[in-house]
Design goal:
With 249 residues, the protein is α/β, with parallel strands linked by helices. Helix content is 37%, strand content 24%. The longest helix has 17 residues, at 229-245.
Length: 249
């Protein structure tokens, strides 16, 4: 198998329908598989996938156990040379997916690559990031409170960022064999930053490819409800991340 695409969902059937429709062409490819993990949804997603996409491998979890846990259950079932972690609020396209695969084929030093993410208005979203120190998080919360857009620098040529967000990460199989799975102590963010640190520590590159792009609706639930239960779990995960990697700024 050349590529395994892993999606996870938690009560997001509206987005999932769009995402699966955008990936429907892959169901005719013998070298691509889709693995969908239902992270305890109660919106009828399991029934929808079973009735409309019986070819897709599914993993059903009894309740929401976090992003890392759910993705790991999908990774364990994957047989591809490359593993594509993709959020279910994305709309993918053949050019971007095959472009990333081709890049990985010709750049064995690259452990993870990801493409540009845009919204439906073609506005670029920041998916190539700096490690999430306290200063960056406080700045994001401040801009949320004053309803002001944070000024971001968007790269137009491929380069090596500190990390790529988990909404779109194509991972080389050897990287997982060497680095291990995502850290399940992190319920929701920053499991992606943690994984990229570990991958880079094992000698692989993390590469951002802006020449390819997909649509990402970018739910950002913790920024919209910064005092919600999920946001509290996110803060706990950040504190764990800071302690684990000795990164506070």
């Amino acid at each position: 198998m050349r590529l395994s695409i892993i999606l996870i969902s938690w009560n997001s059937l509206v987005h999932l329908k769009e995402c699966l429709a955008s990936l429907s062409y892959t169901l005719q490819k013998e070298d691509i598989e889709i693995i969908w993990v239902d992270n305890g949804s109660t919106d009828g997603a399991s029934r929808y996938v079973k009735e409309n996409y019986p070819q897709i491998q599914t993993v059903t979890l009894p309740y929401n156990q976090g992003v890392a846990y759910a993705r790991n259950r999908g990774i364990e079932k994957a047989s591809g040379k490359y593993i594509l972690l993709l959020d279910d609020d994305t709309i993918a396209n053949e050019n971007a997916i095959y472009g990333m695969v081709a890049y990985m084929d010709f750049h064995p030093e690259t452990g993870i690559c990801g493409c540009k993410l845009t919204n439906t208005q073609k506005e670029t979203q920041k998916s190539d990031k700096e490690y999430p120190g306290l200063g960056i998080k406080f700045k994001n919360i401040f801009y949320t409170f004053i309803r002001r857009k944070n000024k971001e620098i968007f790269h137009t040529v491929e380069y090596e960022p500190e990390y790529l967000i988990g909404a779109c990460q194509m991972i080389r199989r050897e990287v997982l064999d060497l680095t291990g799975l995502l850290d399940e102590n992190i319920f929701y963010g920053p499991e992606d930053a943690d994984f990229c640190i570990r991958v880079r520590n094992n000698g692989f590159k993390i590469i951002y490819l802006p020449q390819f792009s997909i649509i990402h609706h970018w739910k950002r639930v913790t920024n919209r409800k910064i005092f919600s239960k999920l946001a509290c779990r996110h803060i706990q995960a950040l504190l764990y991340f800071y302690k684990k990697h000795h990164r506070y700024l």
